[in-house]
Amino acid sequence: MPGYELMGREELAEIQDVFDHGAVLFRHGFDALRQGRYKVKDFEAAMAARLGVPHALAVSSGTAALRVALAGLGLGAGDEVITQAFTFVATVEAIIESRATPVCAEVDATLNMDPVDLARRITPRTKAVIVVHMLGTPARLPEIQALCDAHGLALIEDTAWGLGGALHGRPLGTWGAAGTLSFDFAKTLTTGEGGMVVCRDPDVWARCAAWHDHGHENNPALPRWEDSRSSSGFNFRMGELAGAVGLAQLRKLDGIVGAQRAHRDRLWAAIADLPGVSARAVPAGAYETADALVFFVPDADAARRSRAALLAHGLATKILPEATRWHFAGTWTHMPELVRAHGGDLRAAFPQSSRWLARAVAMPVGVSLADDAPQRARAALSEALALDLPAAA
Ligand SMILES: Cc1ncc(COP(=O)(O)O)c(C=O)c1O
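# pyridoxal-5'-phosphate complex -> structure
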C-alpha cells in the first residue's frame, strides 16, 4: 500500500529546501527568487527517468491526469472510450468530463480488462481504450495493445495502482500512448493529492502541458502574460510543495514495492492451501506492485464472512468485497452517460464481472506487516470458510 507509511524527514527536507530558497510555491517563473529550485519539474524529470520515457507532466490528481491525457490525445464529443467495469469512478468521470462516451468492458479472472470482451465492444466510434492495472496487477497488455493497434485506437494506461509494476520487464504506464499516475494518500507514492501523465510523443506532451495550464505553451521567448496559445485548457497544475514531497517519495518507490511483494508473499503462503481459496489470475511476465493480496473464495457470502473474520482478527480488506459501489460500473446508476451507453440497465450489463467480483477478497498490503499477520489471516479465513485445519507453520 502506501508511501504514507514512509512519510518522513526526506519529504520534510525537500519542503524545507523550497522555503529556504524563496518559498516559491508556483511551478513556473519567479526565477530570481527561487534560486534554482523547481521541484515539480525535478519530480517530472525523475519520474520520466525512472519509467524510461521522455516526457512526464505532473498534475493535481490522478483524475486530472486522466482528463489531461484525454485532452492531449484529442478525444472528445462523439468519441467512444472503452475502459473496464472494475475500476474507480474517476476513470469513467474523466471520459464523461471530456464529453466522450464511456463504455465499460468486462473484467476476467485477472480482475482487469478482458480482451475478448473489449474486442466485442469496439465500434467505428471507438477512439481509445483506458486499461486499468487494478490493485497493482498488470492487465493483459499484449492482447489489449494488439487490439488497439489493429483498430487504430489510442491506449491509455490508468496506472493509479500500477506505479513500480512491470510486464515483461516494461514498466506499467509506458505501454500505450499515455500512462496516468495518482499520488493520492492511498497510493504507492503520495503527495497528498497529485498525479502525472507520462508519454513518449512530444506533441502529446505539449498538448497535455498546455491544456493543464489554461492553454499556456510556456513559450521561452515570451513573458507568461504574453504567452502563446493554441487551445483552451484548465488549471490542473501541481504546486511546488507537492512536487517536493513527490521527489522524496519517488526515491522510496523500489523499497516500497519490494516490501509489499515480500509481505504479500508471506500472507499468500499462509492461506494458499486453504480449501476454497484460489488465486487471482496474473498475466505471464507480470511484476506486481502487490498493493493488495487478492484472492477468490467460493461465493459472495464467503467473501462477506471473510471480511468479517479478517476484521475480527485485527486485519482488513481493501475495496473487495466491501467497496464495489465505488469500483464496479454495474452499480453506477448515478452516471446517466454510462447508463445510456449500456442500454439503460447497468446491473445486467456486466454479468461476468459481477460473478468474479462477488467472490473476490482483497487484503491491503503495506510496507510493514506484523509478524503474526499471516497466522491471523489463516485463522480468520479458516473460520470464515468453516474449515478445521492445522495452523500455518
Ligand atoms: C484506478 C484509479 N484511477 C484513478 C484514480 C484517481 O486518482 P486521484 O484520487 O488521484 O484523483 C484512482 C483513485 O483511487 C483510481 O483508483
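# post-check
The chain has a mean pLDDT of 96.
The chain has two domains: 3-250, 253-384.
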